[in-house]
């Protein structure tokens, strides 16, 4: 059990009787402490189902489950390993009725929320609606409801948003729906205001473990506190230097408050980094050094000095991409230690913002290098997948009006906007959901007769599907059911009708099939429920469908594919790769635009405002996260010119490059690398053509 843990880690793992905080820098084995501690808790007699480990993403949860399974075997399957949001779903499924929510509530995604807000606020401008969304979300994360938000609103604009928030909340409850913030806020309300609910959950939670604690927000912290109660049996691990979600309301106050709220908190520091070479770790330590320290930390590595960190300059983004790919090829073609750490999956290209991926994708394609993009558009954000999910949502929750409107028009079934408008007015008048309105006796007075027939037919069809879905269990039955349904509604044809480009339509259809396969797999218990509970038994399609909106990728649990990773820095948190290229390390990108001009960006000599200083510090932490993803080699690249709108403008290297304090003699990229890359490429082509020439 103690294999592969140092003394400090062991101390954290063995301390099971009270609250424990592991505070340590990147790569020091914090996540490892959590996985091992799950095993330890079981060893000392805690029932697996009374252990909950909370991770930052579903992907991290899947990985932790996998590792726990390797460590402790079968018992791992009863442990709850999930995100705060998924835990929220579980709490609300069991106890949401107390707040008037039925167990089959819908979860609205960001796009749904934008359109509901447009409606509530009477605007067609998505940007404005998103602005409101942002503000409302922040308020919700601060625990404010519409009334409280109005009471503390500093100006007219805020008062307007607070009023829209009131309407929005009414809408959600009419739809029996919640948004992502509610997945934290409502469980908190349940735990805080209903003692019997709280006591039940506290009895259920023998020990709660939280990874990436520095990125929890105030509401999540309150949920945690209520879950563990005064006994405070929990283990939080985190690193204040990696707090990168301040813009989403995460707050380091949670770290400061722990010792105050739990006076018997045991604080353990880890100092050895097991991930990176000394050269990389030094650059990381140097970069983070100017930030104020919440807790002093030191970090050392015994992995040797290693390759120097390289700085690469490029003319523009295309050139930068070419150089990054040349570097990958050069390392792959290298002569040292030929079999080790040189597969595609050993490489990552990391950048500040999603849109920066494009030139790298193109260059990788040209070079025939397989890759995946993470942290970008989610599979579940694709139109075709959202169409299908709307149908599922409607089966589960008939009151979900946004889902109703999407399902009834995807594909179009001869029910026009006029009819839907009339139906909407009728439903509002009688305070019914659109679905309920379908079957109201007086509907024919509001909608013309032919349309009523069409609406009734749709309603009956939904009821029929719902009934069939409820009784469809297991993978094969589920797949057959889904394919038949798609045929019935003519979805494939709908895709081809809606797209001039056949290739695009066919790609969409492939996504649909892939999605059905995945859904069916979940029904068959091949993959865990997103709420982190055991999956080994079959589930009905309806059960599976409810948590889809929490998931962003189909391949959460797939064993790492052998491909190069392209990722945003935010999505790279907690992960590691042997070779990392950090790209776009320019002023204005990383740190991201801090102000409108130099004066505000802190480049001039004048004093920086507090707000800008804080943003700069968060950007610096992001740089620190990026650097510390690398195990053996790190290159940092920047471009001399950058696209700004349609123009190319001169660009500067990021101040963080200077802050890494690299040795001037070693940072320039080794010119021999280019040569090696060429040689490798040449050898590959020769091998390819030799293979082709074979009969
Ligand atoms: P981050 O701050 O990036 O989340 P972390 O502190 O969670 O990092 P881990 O991911 O747990 O660190 O560990 C980093 C690497 O070091 C992993 O590859 C892990 O397997 C390895 N590692 C951790 N502890 C030990 C140890 N005691 N002995 C050997 N390897 C270790
Ligand atoms: Mg970690």
TrEMBL record:
It is an enzyme of class 5 (isomerase). CDD domains: DEXQc_UvrD. The keyword Phosphoprotein does not apply. It catalyses: Couples ATP hydrolysis with the unwinding of duplex DNA by translocating in the 3'-5' direction; ATP + H2O = ADP + phosphate + H(+). The keyword Repeat does not apply. Residues 3-277 form the UvrD-like helicase ATP-binding domain. It comes from the Bacteria. Its EC number is 5.6.2.4. SUPFAM superfamilies: P-loop containing nucleoside triphosphate hydrolases (SSF52540). Keywords: ATP-binding, DNA replication, DNA-binding, Helicase, Hydrolase, Isomerase, Nucleotide-binding. Residues 278-574 form the UvrD-like helicase C-terminal domain. ATP binds at residues 24-31, 275. Pfam families: UvrD-helicase (PF00580), UvrD_C (PF13361). Belongs to the helicase family. UvrD subfamily. This is ATP-dependent DNA helicase Rep.
């Amino acid at each position: 059990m103690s294999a592969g843990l140092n003394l400090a880690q062991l101390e954290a793992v063995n301390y099971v009787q009270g609250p424990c905080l592991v505070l340590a820098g990147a790569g020091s084995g914090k996540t490892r402490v959590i996985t091992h501690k799950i095993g330890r808790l079981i060893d000392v007699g805690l029932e697996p189902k009374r252990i909950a480990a909370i991770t930052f993403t579903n992907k991290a949860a899947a990985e932790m489950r996998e590792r726990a399974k390797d460590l402790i075997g079968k018992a791992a399957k009863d442990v709850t390993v999930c995100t705060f949001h998924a835990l929220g779903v579980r709490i609300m499924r069991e106890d949401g009725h107390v707040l008037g929510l039925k167990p089959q509530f819908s979860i609205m995604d960001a796009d749904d929320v934008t359109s509901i807000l447009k409606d509530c606020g009477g605007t067609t401008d998505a940007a404005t609606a998103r602005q409101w969304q942002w503000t409302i979300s922040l308020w919700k994360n601060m625990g404010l409801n519409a009334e409280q938000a109005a009471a503390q609103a500093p100006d007219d604009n805020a008062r307007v948003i607070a009023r829209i928030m009131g309407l929005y909340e009414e809408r959600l409850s009419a739809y029996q729906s919640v948004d992502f913030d509610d997945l934290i806020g409502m469980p908190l309300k349940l735990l805080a205001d209903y003692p019997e609910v709280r006591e039940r959950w506290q009895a259920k939670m023998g020990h709660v473990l939280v990874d990436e604690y520095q990125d929890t927000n105030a509401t999540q912290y309150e949920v945690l506190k209520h879950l563990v109660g005064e006994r405070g049996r929990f283990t939080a691990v985190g690193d204040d230097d990696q707090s990168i979600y301040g813009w989403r309301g995460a707050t380091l106050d949670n770290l400061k408050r722990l010792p105050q709220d739990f006076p018997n908190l045991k604080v353990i520091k880890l100092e050895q980094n097991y991930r990176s070479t000394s050269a990389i770790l030094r650059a990381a330590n140097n970069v983070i050094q100017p930030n104020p320290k919440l807790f002093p930390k030191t970090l050392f590595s015994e992995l040797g000095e290693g390759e120097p960190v390289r700085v690469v300059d490029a003319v523009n983004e295309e050139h930068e991409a070419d150089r990054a790919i040349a570097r990958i090829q050069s390392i792959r073609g290298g002569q040292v230690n030929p079999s080790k750490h040189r597969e595609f999956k050993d490489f990552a290209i990391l950048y500040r913002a999603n849109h920066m991926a494009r030139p790298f994708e193109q260059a990788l394609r040209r070079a025939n290098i397989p890759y995946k993009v993470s942290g970008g558009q989610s599979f579940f954000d694709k139109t075709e997948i959202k169409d299908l999910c709307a149908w599922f949502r409607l089966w589960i929750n008939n009151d979900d009006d946004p889902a109703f409107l999407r399902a009834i028009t995807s594909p179009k079934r001869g029910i026009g906007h006029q009819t839907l408008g009339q139906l909407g007015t009728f439903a509002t008048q009688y305070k019914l959901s659109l679905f309920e309105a379908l079957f109201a006796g007086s509907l024919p007075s509001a909608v013309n007769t032919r349309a009523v027939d069409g609406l009734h037919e749709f309603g009956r069809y939904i009821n029929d599907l719902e009934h069939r879905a409820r009784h469809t269990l297991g993978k094969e039955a589920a797949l057959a059911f889904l394919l038949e349904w798609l045929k019935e509604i003519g979805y494939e044809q709908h895709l081809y009708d809606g797209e001039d480009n056949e290739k695009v339509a066919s790609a969409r259809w492939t996504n649909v099939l892939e999605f059905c396969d995945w859904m069916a797999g979940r029904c068959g218990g091949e993959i865990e429920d997103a709420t982190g509970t055991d999956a080994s038994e079959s589930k009905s399609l309806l059960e599976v469908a409810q948590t889809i909106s929490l998931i962003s990728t189909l391949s959460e649990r797939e064993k790492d594919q052998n491909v190069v990773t392209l990722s945003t820095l935010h999505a790279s948190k907690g992960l590691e790769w042997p070779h990392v290229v950090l790209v776009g390390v320019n002023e204005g990108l990383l740190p991201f635009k801090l102000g409108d001009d130099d004066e505000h960006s802190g480049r001039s000599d004048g004093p920086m405002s507090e707000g800008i200083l804080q943003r700069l510090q968060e950007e610096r932490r992001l740089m620190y996260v990026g650097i510390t993803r690398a195990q053996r080699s790190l290159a940092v690249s920047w471009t001399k010119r950058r696209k700004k709108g349609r123009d190319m403008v001169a660009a500067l290297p990021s101040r963080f490059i200077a802050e890494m304090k690299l040795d001037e003699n070693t940072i320039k990229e080794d010119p021999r690398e280019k040569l090696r890359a060429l040689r490798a490429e040449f050898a590959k082509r020769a091998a390819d053509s030799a293979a082709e020439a074979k009969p």
